[in-house]
Design a protein that fits this description.
- This protein is α+β, with helices and mostly antiparallel strands.
- The chain has one domain.
- It is built from three helices and four strands, in the order H-H-E-E-E-H-E.
- The strands form two sheets. It has a two-stranded parallel ribbon.
- The radius of gyration is 16 Å and the shape is globular.
């Protein structure tokens, strides 16, 4: 009988799958729905993030999006931003 992965492993795996889905959806939306001029602006923003090596984000402070538990930041949006910042190889500042 196979041993099931722990709750934390399943949660981390689910979070990564959701992050990948959001990232792919975001890239698809940019590629398909915006005109070339708007794409140039989006690329410019990404270039500025990469130049300063910092992703600065603003989010709501609540029990779902972003919160601090025992001094450690947590929340769905925080997890997504952390994964995106790690993907870009930049520091995250909230």
């Amino acid at each position: 009988m196979k041993k099931l992965p722990s709750y934390h492993v399943r949660k981390a795996r689910r979070t990564l799958v959701i992050a990948a889905f959001i990232a792919v959806s975001f890239v698809f939306m940019i590629g398909k729905t915006q005109k070339a001029k708007k794409n140039a602006k989006a690329v410019n923003v990404l270039e500025r993030i990469l130049e300063r090596d910092t992703l600065i984000a603003l989010t709501n402070y609540n029990s779902i999006s972003y919160f601090s538990y025992r001094g450690r930041p947590m929340g769905f949006q925080y997890d997504m931003l952390t994964l995106f910042a790690n993907y870009l190889g930049v520091e995250l500042r909230i």
